[in-house]
Amino acid sequence: xxxxxxxxxxxxxxxxxxxxxxxxxxxxxxxxxxxxxxxxxxxxxxxxxxxxxxxxxxxxxxxxxxxxxxxxxxxxxxxxxxxxxxxxxxxxxxxxxxxxxxxxxxxxxxxxxxxxxxxxxxxxxxxxxxxxxxxxxxxxxxxxxxxxxxxxxxxxxxxxxxxxxxxxxxxxxxxxxxxxxxxxxxxxxxxxxxxxxxxxxxxxxxxxxxxxxxxxxxxxxxxxxxxxxxxxxxxxxxxxxxxxxxxxxxxxxxxxxxxxxxxxxxxxxxxxxxxxxxxxxxxxxxxxxxxxxxxxxxxxxxxxxxxxxxxxxxxxxxxxxxxxxxxxxxxxxxxxxxxxxxxxxxxxxxxxxxxxxxxxxxxxxxxxxxxxxxxxxxxxxxxxxxxxxxxxxxxxxxxxxxxxxxxxxxxxxxxxxxxxxxxxxxxxxxxxxxxxxxxxxxxxxxxxxxxxxxxx
Length: 456
Prior knowledge:
By secondary structure, the protein is of the alpha/beta class. Among the domains are: 6-94, no CATH class; 101-328, Aldolase class I (TIM Barrel). It is built from 17 helices and 16 strands. A 10-stranded mixed sheet has the order 12-11-10-9-8-7-13-14-15-16, covered by helices on one side. It has a 3-stranded antiparallel sheet with strand order 1-2-6. The chain has a 3-stranded antiparallel sheet with strand order 3-4-5. Strand 15 and strand 16 (387-388) form a beta hairpin. Helix 11 runs parallel beside helix 17. The longest helix has 20 residues, at 78-97.
């Protein structure tokens, strides 16, 4: 009797094909609201939809004559698969080491909003402006430490686009420093003062402006209001219109939880009516409102990742116009249907200290936007002197699905990548721990949505 999971392959005489196993990277499950099944393998980069009979054969290990399964890497000789795993890992590291780096600069943690879910509301900044020598030190550090890397700057906060003379002068200096170095600039903003900053933005090499809009006016204004309670929706809409009219790219992000998810169709219809969705310079993202650091002590309104996508799946089926505004990723499902192929294996989904760094007005260095400003997460300083915690930086750099022991035998690890290190550390106190993604459940929904509706 064969060992569980192993199949003899008649007709092959090479020793490495005499005894085969299902790949430990196979992800197999039933498609949501369908009689069909899917089989994907992130390592061999293969994906197939199986009918009920084919799926039954797969479950019964009835593949003795299925050479196609060997060719696609669903059926493997373990030692050969391990060689492919190591080769793919080295390729991933090589590509990541040559990839573009996003360098966040936070000039202050001040903000003119009083958002209901802010995770930075306890951060402080005693200064009304940033000393020019700090900005100069930041660019010296960028010039020296990232001279060999493609890179761009992202302004972050707090709210970077605050409308005071001192703060506008600071932003102007950062934009001038980037322009002088031929570096693109992105801005993460609440969007309230976009019109006042338009002339500055038009003069700089802006890659995109990310603006958060949490729904149509009533919903948005109940979540993202000015300090004092005044709404912000109308001013943001005016700013988005102005950016697109001046051909500056916009990335509109909606932060989703149980309080506002059902407003997604109405927001989609609003964006469609404005003509935004027809503009190639307009794109969207959905972010999950979640617990990070001290915030969200009352978590009853928060979705888990799968809960959010389950709700979006139902909403899109009832309101397909949402897809003109935003096509949800459902893990790698959207990528597969849009590109007709699998993405490269994902050995690490955390960009911190690899393709992302964060810096703030005080001269401190952090791994990413999820840690910037959080006491205890500093990795060093670039001002008044360069001083790095090399041991902690190395721990961040080494975190991937190989370093995380819980990932070692996980079949979805090359589609998950271990998740966010900051969230994992907040949850467990340990950097080398997983922030697990429900990949199989997401694929069930995404393959069901995109295959049945044929909307990608």
